[in-house]
Amino acid sequence: MAIIIQQLLNATQLGAVYALIALGYSMVYGIIRLINFAHGDIFMVGAFIGFLLATLAGLPFYVIMPLAMLLTALVGVAIERIAYRKLRNAQRMSLVITALGVGIFLENIVRVLVGPQTRQLPPLLPDAILQLPGGIVITEDKILIILISLALMMILWLFVNKTLMGTALRAVADNKEIVPLMGINLNQVIAVTFAIGSALAAAGGIFFGQAYSIDPYMGIDLGWKAFIAAVIGGIGSIEGAVLGSFMLAEVEVFSVAYLSSNLKNGIAFGLLIVLLLIWPSGIMGKPMLKKV
User: GO CC annotations (predicted)?
Assistant: First the structure.
C-alpha cells in the first residue's frame, strides 16, 4: 500500500507539470481553434529563463518564478502578434505549419544562445526529506510543487469564471465572430490567452527543471504529452486539461513502476486512442456542431 501511495505522489507531481502545460494548449484552442504546436517549446523557453535567472543572476525562487512567468508571457504574446495574428482567418493547415515552424525556431534560438547541453536547475525549493507513516517518503520541494501548481490552477479558474476579462474569454470561446460587435477587443482577449498559457508553461518548466534535467529539445516530448492530456480531458476545457493531465501522469508512473519505462509512451498514446473511441470530444469536451 505504501508503494502505491508513493507512486500516487510521484504521479501527482508529474501531473501538475503536465496540467500547467496542457492548460495553454486548451485555452488557445478554446479561443481561436488553433493547436499551438509551439507551446511545448514555450514551456522549454520558460524553463531556460528560470535557469538563467537562477544561475546568472542568482535570484531566489520567489523572484524567479513571477519574473520567468512574465518574460515567457511576453514571448507568447510576441509569437501570437508576429506569427499567428495575420493568419487567424487563413486555412487551419497554414496555422499548424506556422506553429511547427515557430517551435523549431525556438529550439534553435535557445540552442544557439545557451548551447545544446543538458542542464540542471539549481535547487530553488527546500528539499528536506519527510518520512510519513507507512514508510512513505516525500521531499518538501515535491509538496511545494504540487501545492503551488494547484494554487495557480485555482487562480486561473477564478480569473476565467469570476472576472470581466474571464467573461470575455468565455464569450470569445463561444463565438468569436459576434463578440467584437459587443465592443470586446478580440486582439486583446487573444493576447491575454497567450500570455496566461505561456506564463503557466513557464511555471511548469521551472518545476520540471527542479526534478529533471532541461535541454533545448525537452519541449517536444513534454509538449506532446501535455497535448495528449488536453485531448483526453477535452481540449478547450480547463477542467478537462487538468483531469487529463493527472490521468496521463498516473498511467505513465504506474506503467514505469509495474511494467517497463519503455512502454510508457506507447501506453499513453494507446490510452488516447481508447478514450477517444469512447469520448470523441474528450472526457469533458463538448461536441462541435457543424452547419450543413
Answer: plasma membrane
Query: pLDDT tens for residues 67-91?
Result: 999 999 999 999 999 988 888 777 8
Interatomic CA distance for residues 221 and 107, integer angstroms: 13
Q: Tell me phi and psi for residue 256, to 5 degrees.
A: -65, -40
Beta partners for 59?
none
The H-or-E segment that residue 43 falls in is helix 39-55
Region of 284 please: left (phi>0), alpha (psi -120 to 50) or beta: alpha
* Amino acid 166: pLDDT: 87
C-alpha 214/C-alpha 202 separation (Å) is: 13
Kindly state the DSSP code that residue 283 receives in the 8-state scheme. Answer: S
What is the distance between the alpha carbons of residues 107 and 68, in angstroms, rounded to a whole number?
Answer: 18
Q: Which residues of 252-287 are buried (b: 16+ CB within 10 A; e: fewer)?
A: bbbbbeeeeeeebeebbeebbeebeeebebbbbbee
- DSSP 8-state code for residue 213: -
Rounded to a whole number of angstroms, the CA Rg of the chain reads 19
Direct distance between the N- and C-terminal alpha carbons of the chain, in angstroms, rounded to an integer: 54
Checking if the pLDDT of 292 tops 50, the result is: no
What are φ and ψ of residue 178, in 5° steps? -85, -35
What's the predicted TM-score (pTM) here? Answer: 0.89
DSSP state of 179: G
Phi, psi of 137 (to 5 degrees): -115, 135
